[in-house]
Amino acid sequence: MLMALDNLSDYDMLTFKLKEICLVSKTKEMYPLFNPKLLLSTVMITKHGNEMHMPEELQTLASDLWKNMMIPNACLDSYEKFVDAYLEWRTDDINDLKSSIEGGIESLSCIKENNEKDYADEQWNVAIDTSINVMKDKLGELEIFSKSPPSK
Question: Residue 141: left if φ>0, alpha if ψ -120 to 50, beta else—which one?
Fold first, then answer.
């Protein structure tokens, strides 16, 4: 089952396969002491880590762990190091996303029309406010996400 993932390189197909409940369950059966979703994430990081701007150390740890998972009954002694590197990247990535969104909110706030002169100005401000509200919602989602890291 895991070997089939190893043969996939298409990002969308790999993402689709990684969501399959039976794959997660089978991985949990094979490695009951580890988080199966984190284990499965190693294939995505191995194949697409550069595209996702992941640190080289994390990509190396993921690749090593994934290779070991291809060997029946192999020891996964690099798991803890991988998880630590993953959680560090995850925290940094969430903080970077928050900063980008906050910068977008600030930029949009600066281009809002303070003296609405006509219907176009009014609609401009409605669009700005809508965009800001969407961004604030995403900040809230990131905040919730940041407080619920995956279990080791």
Answer: alpha
Which amino acid would we find at residue 44? M
- Which single residue is written with the structure tokens 């060997």? 71
Query: Where is 95: in which H helix or E strand?
Result: helix 79-110
- In-domain check, residue 52: yes
The domain of 119 spans 94-146
On whether residue 116 sits in a domain, the answer given is: yes
Q: How many residues does the chain have?
A: 152
Distance CA 132, CA 34 (A): 40
Rounded to an integer, what distance in angstroms lies between the CA atom of residue 141 and that of residue 74? 38
Comparing C-alpha atoms, which of 51, 28, 54, 50 is closest to residue 39?
28
Q: Is the same domain home to 6 and 53?
A: yes
Average pLDDT, integer, range 62-87? 94
Note the pTM of the prediction, 2 decimals: 0.86
